[in-house]
Amino acid sequence: MASPDEATVVATTVGGIAYLRLQRWVGASRTIEHLGRSDNPDVLARAEAARTEMAHRQERRRLVSTLRRLIPAPAPILGKVLDAVSQAGLFRRGAVLVGTAAYQCYAPLLGTILPSATVMTQDADLATADLALQGDSEGESLLGILHRVDKTFAGLPGLDVRVPPARFRNAENFVVDLLTPQRRRTDRNPMPLRRLAAGAIPLQHLDWLIFEPVPAVVLHGAGIPVVLPQPARFAVHKMILAQKRGAHEAAKSRKDLEQAAALVAALRETAPFALSDAMADASARGREGWAKPIERSLSQIGAGFP
What we know:
Elements (H helix, E strand, L loop, with lengths): L7 E7 L2 E10 L2 E9 L3 H28 L7 H12 L8 E3 H5 L2 H5 L12 E5 L14 H6 L6 E2 L11 E3 L5 E7 L9 E3 L4 E6 L2 H4 L4 E5 L5 E5 L2 H14 L5 H21 L1 H12 L3 H14 L6
Parallel strand pairs: 5-8, 8-10
Antiparallel strand pairs: 1-2, 2-3, 4-5, 6-7, 7-8, 9-10, 11-12
């Protein structure tokens, strides 16, 4: 697992006194943390821990490089965005990666190769059930985090310009969306995420999707630690989503079904009971909004209940 504390130890001298600092690359930007005087035992201990971690990082890079030759890896911009988000601690504070960006991470998690045609994406969807994004400090705005990757990222205003944006896009049209579960029909769109100076779009069924998420690693750099929905819940959620899209989203609906079909096939080999339990749990929550969409999708992908 990649560490959020990976850093290179750099020595510098100021006024004849030796100091140590930690240099980190986050996304495409360099950050520097000053540790203190090099004759301080606590500073030396932190520097030695960073050197040890760097050696581990180099070994992980070799492993990731090997896996990337076998498994489709994320595009560089997606890897850099997730690196910045992970380094900022958002996954530790309750964020969950969803959408096709999450689907890309299931191949190494399940030990299988997923169809490459279903993994291409030009966006990253981040979901959170906690609008406060747990944490003691105010932290950094999402735009500030994204600017570590690309200074052209900007928030896209919604219908109400007084509400902070929930969608951010760079000059290359890569989009980052923030999502949150819809609790009631009167929820504001977007819901405010004040800690990130952003909003989050409320969506149905999202709370079910991100229930008890799992850790995973993105095949970028030395490996980026992220948090994903359970693979079985992701597959079932895609079945439901495919049936709820409008006619103008036919291409997205087909992609939902392709991803669901690929995961169903993989889960039947690796975790059949998890898939069966997820389908049963979702179907029990309602006939019209849950069970029927699942059944229609299963019929379209040529699969029945495990």
